[in-house]
């Protein structure tokens, strides 16, 4: 964003009057004698120049000194934005939530909700095995999708929702593979079952079915292994996981077909035969 002539002028006024150009005592500027627009312009300038912490603080001064003005409303959403790009997600979330609470019918309420969702989503890869933040991201993204379906943020929220959902499935797979590698077959089956039952629309389902084939064969539960292979063959026959399961099962003289009455038989009836009873 280009800095206008009027903005440059207001910045110079603030620099001179407030001592913002590196005065000896380095005191924080006092904004009581400045208009909300002048403070807002200063905050915007700091944002443009990458001083995100100062920008967020100055946007907060607009809200503090002129709480019922139009400038305060604009400053609040911009403060949430500045906090977010400064990776201060908790403060960004707080500012975004205040905007939603104060201005629920405003046109920028959708963006505030989207910023709130991003404050969770952008932390997903940093939280290790604790997936609580991912669930919070999913909930906040769902709110964007359901409350603001016609907004410009809905499509992005849908994409991020799918990615976050896939991330949860990936974490289940990670733990399941760990258990499988340690020969804790029952524990690994529980993890892969979660993926097949609760995350079946994600990219991890083919591998989960193959890992179930491996685990069940290791336990000697051939009917369950065959049924997992049948589901895999019906839905993902072109995948590498189907090929691996095919080799495993046929190598033991087994067919990839539904056998028995396990939980996988129920999945087969529902997803392939369309039978829910």
UniProtKB/TrEMBL annotation:
Coiled coil: none annotated. Keywords: Cell outer membrane, Lipoprotein, Membrane, Palmitate, Signal. It is a lipid-anchor. It is found in: Cell outer membrane. Its main location: membrane. It holds the Pfam family YfiO. Transmembrane segments: none annotated. InterPro entries: BamD, BamD-like, TPR-like_helical_dom_sf. The keyword Membrane applies. Residues 35-228 form the Outer membrane lipoprotein BamD-like domain. Part of the Bam complex. Belongs to the BamD family. Part of the outer membrane protein assembly complex, which is involved in assembly and insertion of beta-barrel proteins into the outer membrane. This is Outer membrane protein assembly factor BamD. It comes from Meridianimarinicoccus marinus. The gene is bamD.
């Amino acid at each position: 964003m280009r800095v206008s002539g009027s903005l440059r002028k207001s910045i110079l006024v603030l620099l001179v009057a407030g001592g913002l150009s590196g005065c000896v005592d380095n005191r924080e500027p006092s904004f009581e004698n400045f208009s909300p627009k002048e403070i807002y312009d200063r905050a915007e300038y700091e944002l443009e120049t990458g001083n995100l912490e100062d920008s967020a603080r100055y946007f907060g001064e607009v809200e503090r000194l002129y709480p019922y003005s139009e400038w305060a409303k604009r400053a609040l959403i911009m403060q949430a934005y500045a906090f977010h790009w400064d990776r201060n997600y908790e403060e960004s979330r707080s500012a975004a939530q205040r905007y939603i609470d104060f201005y629920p019918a405003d046109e920028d309420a959708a963006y505030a909700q989207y910023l709130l969702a991003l404050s969770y989503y952008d932390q997903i890869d940093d939280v290790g095995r604790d997936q609580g933040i991912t669930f919070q991201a999913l909930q906040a993204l769902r709110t964007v999708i359901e409350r603001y379906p016609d907004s410009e943020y809905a499509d992005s929220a849908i994409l991020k929702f799918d990615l976050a959902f896939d991330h949860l499935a990936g974490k289940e797979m990670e733990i399941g593979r760990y258990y499988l590698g340690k020969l804790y077959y029952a524990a690994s089956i529980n993890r892969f079952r979660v993926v097949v039952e609760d995350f079946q629309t994600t990219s991890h389902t083919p591998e989960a079915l193959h890992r179930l084939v491996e685990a069940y064969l290791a336990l000697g539960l051939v009917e369950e292994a065959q049924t997992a292979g049948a589901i895999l063959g019906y839905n993902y026959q072109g995948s590498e996981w189907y090929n691996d399961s095919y080799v495993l099962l046929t190598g033991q003289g087994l067919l990839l077909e539904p056998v028995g009455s396990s939980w996988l038989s129920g999945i087969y009836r529902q997803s392939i035969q369309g039978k829910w009873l």
